[in-house]
């Protein structure tokens, strides 16, 4: 088979590498879930731009050592990183829905950051609009921030979870 058709043998090797790549990508996604859980517990943002830039810089350097083009490495790993971010955003959304299942779901239109807002007293008046004020007794309050589709759009929503019994 290999002596008769060297192209077929090469394609089989490529297919075997593709299977390994898929297994590694699945393992990476599982680790992204674990990272997302750790970020949720430590109230860290889903997206860490400094980490992403450091990662890409290191991968481009490694890629050059393997004679791979920097543009190719950047495009490939931006997709992989975006998959991790989306996976972590889904985890954040699941967590927020458990806290308050009646809340409106956050659209996955852009990266989001969960920012806990600390309170000085057990009752915190929260302004939801110009005319509406609410007292939030002993509830965690989160401000959800995301990059809007258009830069001129406001990019904040207040999320007040329902009390946990």
UniProtKB/TrEMBL annotation:
Xref: InterPro entries: Chorismate_II_sf, Chorismate_mutase-related, CM_dom_sf, CM_II_prokaryot, CM_P_1
Gene Ontology CC terms: cytoplasm
PROSITE patterns associated with the record: CHORISMATE_MUT_2
All copies of domain Chorismate mutase, residue ranges: 1-92
Coiled coil location: none
Keyword terms: Isomerase, Lyase
TM spans (from-to): none
GO BP terms: chorismate metabolic process; L-phenylalanine biosynthetic process; salicylic acid biosynthetic process
Its EC number(s): 5.4.99.5
Keyword match Plastid: no
Gene Ontology MF term list: chorismate mutase activity; lyase activity
Presence of keyword Isomerase: yes
Leading EC class: isomerase
Domain of life: Bacteria
Protein name: chorismate mutase
Organism: Shigella dysenteriae 1617
């Amino acid at each position: 088979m290999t002596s008769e058709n060297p192209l077929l043998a090469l394609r089989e090797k490529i297919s075997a590498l593709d299977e390994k790549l898929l297994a590694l990508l699945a393992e990476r996604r599982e680790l992204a879930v674990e990272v997302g859980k750790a970020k949720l517990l430590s109230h860290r943002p889903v997206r860490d731009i400094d980490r992403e830039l450091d990662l890409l810089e290191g991968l481009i350097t490694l890629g050059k050592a393997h004679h791979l083009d920097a543009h190719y490495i950047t495009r490939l790993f931006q997709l992989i990183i975006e998959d991790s971010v989306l996976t972590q955003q889904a985890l954040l959304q699941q967590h927020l829905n458990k806290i308050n299942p009646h809340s409106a779901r956050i659209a996955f239109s852009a990266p989001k950051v969960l920012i806990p807002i600390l309170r000085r007293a057990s009752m915190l008046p929260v302004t939801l609009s110009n005319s509406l004020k609410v007292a939030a007794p002993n509830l965690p309050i989160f401000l959800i921030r995301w990059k809007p589709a258009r830069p001129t759009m406001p990019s904040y929503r207040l999320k007040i979870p329902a009390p946990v019994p």
